[in-house]
Amino acid sequence: MKRLKTALRTPWFWGIVGIFLLLLVNTLKDPAYLAIGVNPTTGLLTGNLLDILRVSAPIILIALGMTFVIATEGIDLSVGSMMAVGGAVAMETLSNIGDPTSVGAMLTAIALAILLAVLLGAVNGVLVAVVGLQPFISTLVMMLAGRGIARVITGGQNTNATNEPFRQLANGQILGLPTSFVLAIVIVLLIALLMRRTALGLMIESIGINPHASRLAGIRPRPILIAVYVLSAGLAAVGGLFSVSEVMTVSVSGTGNQMELDAILAVVIGGTSLAGGKFSIFGSTVGALLIATLNKTVLFLGVPSAATPAFKALVIIALVLLQSERIRSWAFGRKPSARKPSGPERPAVGTGNPVTKEAVA
Amino acid sequence: MEPTAIVEVKNASITFPGVKALDDVSFRLLPGEVHTLMGENGAGKSTLIKALTGVYRIDSGEIVVGGQVRNFSGTASAQAAGISTVYQEVNLCTNLTIGENVMLGHEVHGWAGINWRRTHELAAEALGRMGLGDLDPRAPLSSISIAMQQLVAISRAMVTDSKVLILDEPTSSLDANEVEVLFTVIRRLRDQGVAILFVSHFLDQVFAISDRITVLRNGQFVGEYLTRDLDRAKLISTMIGKDFESLRALGSNRQTEARDRSATPVFAAEGLGRKGAIEPTDVEIHAGEVVGFAGLLGAGRTELARLIAGADRADTGTTRVKGKKVSLNSPVAGLEHGIAYSTESRRDDGIVGDLSVRENIMLAVQARRGWLRRVPAKEIDALVTTYMERFSVRPNDPDRPIRLLSGGNQQKVLLGRWLATNPDLLLLDEPTRGIDVGAKADIQETVAELAEGGMGVVFISSELEEVVRLSERIVIIKDHNKVGEVINGAEVTAESIVSIIAAESEEEASEVLAHEGGALAGTEGSGS
């Protein structure tokens, strides 16, 4: 019972509930929704679940980067454009090399894409940490500039290319799971290790919670802030690579379009507060999976494309309301107590610590 | 012959999971009286106030207001019952006018929306009743001092003709004159028959203003006393449940032996200054010495400390650490050279609220090592155990977020953070502000111990008694200038420090100083 109560207060718990509910709705529409089959020509597994995992890979990565930016009390609006930049660089490189089977061409494309994104991310970081611009403004500028750069790279065309190894990123499978999803999870685990085994995660949280106190404690905020924006841009570029590898075409206006919003939603659903501070990598990943499931559900249910954004909004607002303790106690008929709810509990802190007299005295 | 109480709390209890925050507490407020609630941090003062203002609901017992049993469902219903509250931090809108702030929520409505002329007239009246008639209700709130804003907050609370006014630490950010103005207003309201509940950590103020004192300890009612029947020693020992003499003995062994100051000091500054903060100043701090910085709030004490720690960049001057010339241009540089700075504002510049006690203690040590080399868990545990035990941090739970601790315990954790960096020089800026007597005594004791162990300590406090009791040498700062230095001795008292600060001219000050065995600092830059 106590466990359940703790779980109810954990934001990503509701993310998981949301994923299951969406899958349930889909299954109700088509009982075979969850079925997994084998494609006789390629021998690969097929099914809606695998589709969801594949499209979740880019979202998982940009949500991961966004998590750290948001933890420092910032925001990165440029990740969608950064996906386009990464995709554009990759497609342009591959079509110029023109070797449809070369692994070296793939690696070059990947390296160049990440390199350019990292440079642009560093610009974001310097604007925020050194120049002192608002993260919203700096990255908004980069969001516009990024799409422009993607256009310049491809000459305004939607470049396509042929390279089998690169195509395998999104279309191949490892142990029955989409390669891009497996890679995304590996990256998440590596970054999680980096954050928690070194003191980077602690310092990011500390800066996000109280920048003044952190500076006086001897933490240098600038390198950390720059690192956070660089990481976000780099991860977004990889997300862009996964995204274009599905169709082997970069759409300069379509790739990564509005994905920054998906990433922000995923992070918030995962329980990282927009006010900065404690972050939850696991939560953001759950959030990203939820967004991917939602995107696929919208298509599967045949929601008219005009109504899609409104439908998504409804689902997300319902979820966010469920996460709010106040709304829950109100909706489920528990007597609202006169004690002020202390706002949504953050997952990393929210082991359900009761407010004690030390806290209030 | 006592009048009937306006507010009576009868056997109230509030239980939070695991803790009894209020345990069978009875309390009353009489009209026309200032009633002070005393107790250490965590004694239940805030909980009781929150019960009275409808923030918390009591689990058992009852609250009677004006003869009626009330069950507050929120702050609004407490206000409707005539209980108004002014909190420690001014909760007003600085971008609105004074009048708008006073009348917020009570604006006069006319045929075309709000009648601003009438609203401001009523605001002026409300201010007038407080004796603040010379404030212009149309001036922006930001144009007046924090103290005046505090008074505006009281005017705002009294617009509804409340019978009960709760003042939760209203004086914590005011200087002595401003406190006097506030007290005049409080007395005026008292004479109008308002029942006033006052909370403050400053004993002087408590004795100056209150008619009656109720003491809480560990969530329990200890006693209700008439102020005139109570002396300080008795009050303090009642609050902490300890003998006062053991507190008084503290630090009395300091300030005796003469120190040899010819050795190389831990820290020395020449002409250290920053425009608008502090004029060029010379300071030396020796190993094992406690140097007090005395001066009024805003005189430049904190500014000087920040320059020494590297928290702010100096415009002028040179600094030497153990004789070696160094540049202290960032907190990192300060910490690298063994200088740790505990700031004045615990909440804004000190604690990292959502991080645990453990993380707060190890933060500075970790920052010194860089992000790549995480401090090993064993070492962290050793540090955390050492400092939590040494200062008996309560609750004894290193994984609790520090924001949930009381002020005194937060301060102890911060002290642990700085000591963990093993500094040669520790700057403590108002380490005892707003914390209870017990924690205060712990911290003073620690300062004395640290100095004995060879650390140089700078001790800054608005409570001059405390500075005089702890410091070997006192640097006196006035109007962004160091005006002098006093070697502490038996004849130096808080009063003599005040007389130096209050001296109108330099000559007068140096006369007092000469009398106290001190010397004026170099005259460069002290032309005011």
Blueprint of the fold:
The complex is a heterodimer of chains A (361) and B (528).
Chain A: H1 2-9, H2 11-29, E1 36-38, E2 45-47, H3 48-71, H4 79-97, H5 103-131, H6 135-154, H7 164-171, E3 173-174, E4 177-178, H8 179-197, H9 200-209, H10 211-216, H11 221-247, H12 259-269, H13 281-301, H14 308-323, H15 325-331, H16 357-360
Antiparallel strand pairs in A: 1-2, 3-4
Chain B: E1 7-16, E2 19-29, E3 34-38, H1 45-52, E4 60-65, E5 68-70, H2 75-80, E6 83-86, H3 98-103, E7 109-110, E8 113-114, H4 116-129, H5 146-158, E9 164-168, H6 176-191, E10 195-199, H7 203-209, E11 212-217, E12 220-226, H8 232-240, H9 244-248, E13 267-274, E14 278-285, E15 290-294, H10 301-309, E16 316-321, E17 324-326, H11 331-336, E18 339-342, H12 346-350, H13 357-369, H14 377-390, H15 407-420, E19 425-429, H16 437-452, E20 456-460, H17 464-470, E21 473-478, E22 481-487, H18 494-502, H19 506-516, E23 518-519
Parallel strand pairs in B: 3-10, 3-11, 6-9, 9-10, 15-20, 15-21, 18-19, 19-20
Antiparallel strand pairs in B: 1-2, 1-4, 4-5, 7-8, 11-12, 13-14, 13-16, 16-17, 21-22, 22-23
Helix pairs in contact in B: 5-6, 13-14, 13-15, 14-15, 17-18, 18-19
Structure description:
The complex is a heterodimer of chains A (361) and B (528). With 361 residues, chain A is mainly alpha-helical. Chain A has a single domain (47-302), classed as ABC transporter involved in vitamin B12 uptake, BtuC, CATH 1.10.3470. Helices cover 69% and strands 3% of the residues of chain A. Chain A has helices at residues 2-9, 11-29, 48-71, 79-97, 103-131, 135-154, 164-171, 179-197, 200-209, 211-216, 221-247, 259-269, 281-301, 308-323, 325-331, 357-360; strands at residues 36-38, 45-47, 173-174, 177-178. A two-stranded antiparallel ribbon of chain A has the order 1-2. In chain A, strand 3 (173-174) and strand 4 (177-178) form a beta hairpin. The longest helix of chain A is centred in the N-terminal third of the chain and has 29 residues, at 103-131. Chain A is globular, with a radius of gyration of 21 Å. With 528 residues, chain B is of the alpha/beta class. Among the domains of chain B are: 7-95 and 140-244, 3-Layer(aba) Sandwich (Rossmann fold); 267-338 and 423-521, Rossmann fold (3-Layer(aba) Sandwich). Chain B contains 19 helices and 23 strands. A seven-stranded mixed β-sheet of chain B has the order 18-19-20-15-21-22-23, with helices on both faces. In chain B, strands 6-9-10-3-11-12 form a six-stranded mixed β-sheet, with helices on both faces. In chain B, a hairpin with a 2-residue loop joins strand 7 and strand 8. In chain B, helix 5 runs parallel beside helix 6, helix 13 packs parallel to helix 15 (407-420) and helix 14 crosses helix 15. Chain B is globular. The model of chain B is unreliable at 250-256 and 520-528 (pLDDT under 50). At the A-B interface, helix 9, helix 10 and helix 16 of A face strand 2, helix 1, helix 11, helix 12 and helix 13 of B.
